[in-house]
Structure formats: C-alpha cells, structure tokens
Amino acid sequence: MSNSVYSINKGINQSIEFKGLKAQYIWYLGGGVVGLMILFAALYIIGVPSLICIGFVGTAGGFLVFKIYRMSNTYGEYGMMKALAKKQIPKWIKVYSRAVFMKL
C-alpha cells in the first residue's frame, strides 16, 4: 500500500468571510447594492440626468462600502448583535412598592 496525502479542512464551523467582510455584513452589503440599483433605476425613470444618477449612486455606494467594512472590523462576527442587544437592557428598574419583595 502506498501512503496517501490528504489535505485537512481546518475551517470547519467557521463563519463565511469574503474579502474581509464577516458573517452578516456580506448580506448587508448585498442588500445595499440591490437598494442602490433600485434607486438608480427610479432616478433614471423619473428623468434625472444619467451623470447625476451615476454620481449620486456611486457616492452613496462608496459610503455604504466604507461603513459596512468599518462595522465589520469594529464589531466582528457577533459584536453588532451584542451591542444592539445591550441597548435593549434597561439601565434601572423602578419599583414603587415593596410587595414585589415580600413572599405571600
């Protein structure tokens, strides 16, 4: 028998990554691009000159890519969801009665 050499996939259970974007940020960028395409079509149908449409959508697209890459680098895979969940937690709870602490 001859010895066989197999490569091992060490990326098991890792989140997907595409050109530095991690996890859900790929979907955010895809949705933003689709939204910008719809915006371009709407502006063009309304009658806005095409150079202005291209300039506006190009600037908005650049800003979108910049913001999404920045969020991906800042928060990572799950950090943004954790930050949004942390904002939902109340800072304090006001109780005006001691009945909550008494056993019945």
Strand and helix map with partners:
Blueprint: E1 17-18, E2 21-22, H1 24-46, H2 50-75, H3 79-88
Antiparallel strand pairs: 1-2
Helix pairs in contact: 1-2
Backbone CA Rg: 24 Å
Beta-strand residue fraction: under 5%
Q: Please describe the biggest sheet, giving its number of strands, its sense, and whether it closes into a barrel.
A: 2 strands, antiparallel
Q: What's the end-to-end separation, in Å?
A: 77 Å
Neighbour order of strands in the largest sheet? 1-2
Q: Looking at the chains present, what oligomeric state does this protein adopt? A: single chain
Shape: flat
Total helices: the number is 3
Q: Averaging pLDDT over every residue, what do you get?
A: 84
Low-confidence stretches: none
Count all strands and give the number: 2
- The chain-level structural class is mainly alpha
Secondary-structure element string:
EEHHH
Mind explaining what this structure looks like?
- There is one protein chain.
- By secondary structure, this protein is mainly alpha-helical.
- Helix content is 57%, strand content 4%.
- The protein is built from three helices and two strands, in the order E-E-H-H-H.
- Strands 1-2 form a two-stranded antiparallel sheet.
- Helix 1 packs antiparallel against helix 2.
- The longest helix is centred in the middle third of the chain and has 26 residues.
- The model has no long low-confidence stretch (mean pLDDT 84).
- Pfam families: DUF4133.
- This is DUF4133 domain-containing protein.
- Keywords: Membrane, Transmembrane, Transmembrane helix.
